[in-house]
Design brief:
This protein is of the alpha/beta class and 451 residues long. It contains 16 helices and 18 strands. It folds into 2 domains: 117 residues, Rossmann fold (3-Layer(aba) Sandwich), CATH 3.40.50.720; 231 residues, 2-Layer Sandwich (Dihydrodipicolinate Reductase, domain 2), CATH 3.30.360.
């Protein structure tokens, strides 16, 4: 029986571990919180839980990897390279769902030399986005066509029946990751011109995004969302997708309407600042907001906020700040904290799913391409997936299942490539997309002529 080590027992680990146990692997789940690992294996005879904190006992990683055939790192991305180095040292395969960092890319040669596979970006975004997009690109190229434009947007959101707060958002993954993403600059190609957006201006550059499709079991189409660009859409994706001919490439994030206006104001007043400050007393959130606004701590925060930005009480931004407690008397979790971590605490307190509520994952690819006969086509491919009521979230399924299928394929010898990989070869993406379809995770495709 092949042995798999899963490092981490967080929000996306459940479906991943269940799949591996169901497919007759011996699975060891290593987590800094032993009870979380034990809850995930559910007394399965092939499941084992161990306590492991890479920040406190990194030396224990050697023994854990020694006793596995493949290690899956669901740890924060900053630890993936440490895991990869140990896997190379012991000649063990590895899988992650995270982006390939420059440090990970540098390990490609060593991984190939020792004959192991390190499969990265095998979650949802990155992961399913790569596989589903590359499938369309390869088909167009095989038929002699050229990609003229590629736009791809993904969002993890509450299902319509769970969209019950003013922010139009609930947490299906790390709140700190959600907030930190708002600090990233963006770069994309549009009509042959490179567009670069500084991180502080990110939320000024959003577009209305209409979703005409209906989700599974929905009577109404999803309707209007908004999309904003995500990091660097150009490098390495023009090369990764093998579309040097394209004049437009944009990868972005989907959110419910007014998210960008709200997060822009969050950024403008300083709530995305990572610098810790120690206060002589523990402030309230209203006092911290006053401080960020440059107002006296005892000022009426809501009134000062509305006056400074010329808002009224009916504005969505005001409603969201108020509902989140950013004008209120809740105390900060510590008197030494950064504004970003203070905001993160409020996200954790206010944006959780209630029991039985479902999340939703939306992914939309829009290709414009020219056929070999010169005719232009628009191919829209849309995935709408819901979490299971009182079961796994869509985020955990769409992240965890591709990684689990990839792990199985490596150990069964169906992924033969060695080195640092992402899933853009047909021998990898075709069987994984096919199996995801069997799990109810698939795309609605629409093809239109363009005159």
């Amino acid at each position: 029986m092949k042995k798999i080590l899963v490092l981490g027992a967080g929000m996306v680990a459940g479906p991943h571990i269940n799949y591996l146990l169901d497919h007759n692997f011996r699975v060891t789940v290593a987590s800094r919180t032993l009870s979380k690992a034990e809850a995930l294996i559910k007394n399965h005879p092939n499941g084992f839980a161990v306590k492991f904190d890479i920040t406190k006992t990194p030396e224990n990683l050697e023994g854990l990897i020694k006793n596995c055939d493949l290690a899956v790192s669901l740890l924060p991305y900053v630890y993936h390279v440490d895991v990869a180095r140990e896997c190379i040292k012991q000649k063990k395969h590895m899988v992650t769902t995270s982006y390939v960092s420059p440090e990970m890319r540098e390990l490609d040669k060593k991984a190939r030399e020792v004959g192991i596979t390190i499969l990265n970006e095998i979650g949802v975004d990155p992961g399913i986005d790569h596989m589903s997009a590359k499938k369309i690109v390869d088909k167009v190229h095989k038929e002699g066509g050229e990609i003229l434009s590629f736009k791809s947007y993904t969002g993890g959101l509450p299902a319509p029946d769970a969209n019950t707060n003013p922010w139009g958002y609930k947490l299906s993954w790390s709140p700190r990751g959600v907030i930190l993403a708002g600090r990233n600059p963006a770069k994309y190609l549009e009509n042959g011109k490179i567009v670069e957006i500084p991180g502080e201006d990110l939320f000024d550059h959003y577009i209305p995004f209409y979703i005409p499709e209906k989700g599974p079991g929905d009577e109404e189409e999803l309707g209007m969302l908004e999309g904003y660009p995500n990091r660097n859409s150009i490098e390495p994706y023009i090369d990764v997708y093998e579309i040097p001919e394209t004049k437009t490439i944009i990868r972005g994030t989907l959110r419910n309407t007014s998210w960008c206006r709200t997060m822009k104001k969050v950024a403008d007043i300083g709530y995305l600042n990572l610098n810790e400050e120690e206060f002589p007393i523990t402030l309230t959130y209203g006092q911290l907001t006053n401080k960020l606004l440059g107002k006296p701590l005892d000022a009426d925060t809501k009134s000062e906020f509305m006056d400074q930005f010329d808002y009224n009480e009916s504005d969505d931004v005001v409603k969201r700040f108020d509902w989140m407690g950013l004008f209120g008397t809740d105390s900060l979790p510590s008197n030494k904290i950064s504004p970003l971590d203070a905001l993160c605490h409020q996200f954790e307190q206010h944006l959780q799913y209630s029991l039985g509520e479902r999340d939703m994952l939306i992914m939309v690819h829009e290709f414009i391409y020219k056929e070999s006969n010169g005719k232009k086509k628009k191919h829209t491919s849309t995935m709408i997936d819901y979490g299971l009521k009182n079961g796994p979230s869509s985020m955990s399924r769409t992240v965890g299942l591709p990684a689990a299928i990839g792990s199985r394929m490596i150990l069964e010898g169906k992924i033969k490539d060695k080195g640092v990989l992402i899933p853009v070869k047909s021998t990898i993406y075709e069987p994984i997309l096919k199996e995801l379809q069997e799990h109810g995770i698939g795309f609605i495709d629409k093809l239109e002529d363009i005159k």
